[in-house]
């Protein structure tokens, strides 16, 4: 009898732990989703303003509608999301919003998470988009590793590939025969390197 009581208590305790973990995870997922959706939608909407040609304008309603469409595409969960437009100024490229996501916890209680974001077009005008180069490493004709590295930065070199019965000798440029010392190489364009074995 004593063992049965201990077993039931342990099962109830374990069940409560699972519910708590599931609840915290669900809340965290919704917060992350709101953060990402707001950031992406605001950036895309402001980018649309930036790309307007000289003399073209958008009215406030058009701009807000575009933001809301972009935001709704980003939301994947089945929670109910309410968006409050706190401030918008198309002339200055200002957008400030708050999003509130209401959802049901596994235990049936309602919960909410909210996020506020303010973005100014100047943030996006002044930031140049970094240029990336793709570095691909091939082993026996197949992609071993592939990295995107910011142009002008030092190359990423993967660990030595292993093939049974062969010893890795080094990397050569695709189409070349000479083994290269890649350490410290500055990336300026897309490159493909091929492993050579002895």
What is the succession of H and E elements?
A: HHEEEHEEEEE
| Mean of residue pLDDT values | 80
Give the structural class.
alpha+beta
β-strand number:
8
For the report, how would you describe the main beta sheet? 5 strands, mixed
Question: Strand arrangement, largest sheet?
Answer: 5-4-8-6-7
The overall number of domains is 2
Shape, please?
Answer: flat
Distance between the termini: 69 Å
Kindly state the percentage of residues in helix. 25-40%
Low-confidence stretches: none
Cα-based radius of gyration, to the nearest Å: 27 Å
Strand content: 25-35%
User: If helices are DSSP runs of H or I spanning 4 or more residues, what is the number of helices?
Assistant: 3
Task: Report on the architecture of this protein.
The protein is an alpha+beta fold and 198 residues long. It folds into two domains: 2-126; 132-197, Immunoglobulin-like (Sandwich), CATH 2.60.40.4270. It is built from three helices and eight strands, in the order H-H-E-E-E-H-E-E-E-E-E. The chain has helices at residues 2-50, 60-74, 121-126; strands at 80-89, 94-104, 110-120, 132-139, 142-150, 168-173, 179-180, 191-197. The strands form two sheets. A five-stranded mixed β-sheet has the order 5-4-8-6-7, with no helix packed on it. Strands 1-2-3 form a three-stranded antiparallel β-sheet. Helix 1 (2-50) packs antiparallel against helix 2 (60-74).
């Amino acid at each position: 009898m004593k063992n049965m009581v201990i077993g039931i208590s342990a099962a109830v305790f374990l069940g409560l732990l699972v519910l708590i973990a599931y609840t915290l995870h669900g809340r965290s997922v919704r917060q992350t989703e709101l953060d990402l959706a707001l950031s992406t939608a605001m950036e895309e909407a402001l980018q649309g303003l930036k790309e307007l040609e000289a003399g073209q304008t958008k009215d406030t309603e058009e701009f807000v509608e575009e933001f809301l469409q972009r935001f709704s595409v980003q939301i994947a969960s089945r929670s109910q999301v309410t968006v409050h437009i706190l401030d918008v100024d198309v002339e200055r490229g200002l957008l400030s919003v708050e999003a509130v996501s209401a959802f049901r916890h596994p235990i049936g209680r309602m919960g909410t998470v909210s996020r506020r974001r303010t973005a100014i077009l100047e943030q996006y005008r002044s930031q140049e988009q970094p240029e990336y180069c793709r570095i691909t490493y091939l082993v026996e004709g197949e992609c071993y590793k592939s990295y995107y590295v910011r142009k002008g930065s030092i190359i990423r070199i993967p660990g030595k590939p292993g093939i049974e019965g062969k010893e890795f000798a080094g990397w050569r440029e695709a189409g070349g025969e000479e083994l290269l010392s890649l350490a410290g190489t500055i990336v300026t364009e897309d490159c493909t390197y091929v492993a050579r074995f002895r």
